[in-house]
Specification:
This protein is α+β, with helices and mostly antiparallel strands. It is built from 4 helices and 3 strands, in the order βααββαα. It has a 3-stranded antiparallel sheet with strand order 1-3-2, with no helix packed on it.
């Protein structure tokens, strides 16, 4: 299982609304993530908008591709895009750049 961590930046003035959206993630989005191989997936956000995402998956590229092929992901990413800074026209899931893991205590 590969551990994947990434950073994004939520617009500070939209933080409350972003948090609210994640209190009730659509059921079909949750099902799609699980079916695509996204496990132990968490999002953490600081008050300045720094977002840290973490997930575990067998094959991250395959998990991303499986999500990209779903209609629910297209709708969710379109809904979430206005919350983020510096996407340069990409959807949030397209802007994810995994961090290099340098240490892990099992």
């Amino acid at each position: 299982m590969r551990r994947v961590c990434f950073l994004l930046k939520v617009r500070q003035e939209r933080l409350a609304e972003y948090r609210e959206c994640h209190t009730a993630v659509w059921a079909d989005m949750l099902e799609a993530l699980s079916a695509a191989g996204w496990h132990n997936y968490s999002l953490f956000v600081r008050d300045d908008g720094l977002l840290v995402g973490y997930l575990e998956t067998e094959d991250f590229a395959a998990a991303q591709a499986a999500m990209a092929a779903t209609d629910v992901n297209t709708r969710w990413q379109t809904r979430m895009a206005p919350f983020f800074e510096s996407l340069d026209g990409a959807k949030p899931d397209e802007a994810v750049r995994p961090l290099q893991e340098v240490f892990h205590l099992d």
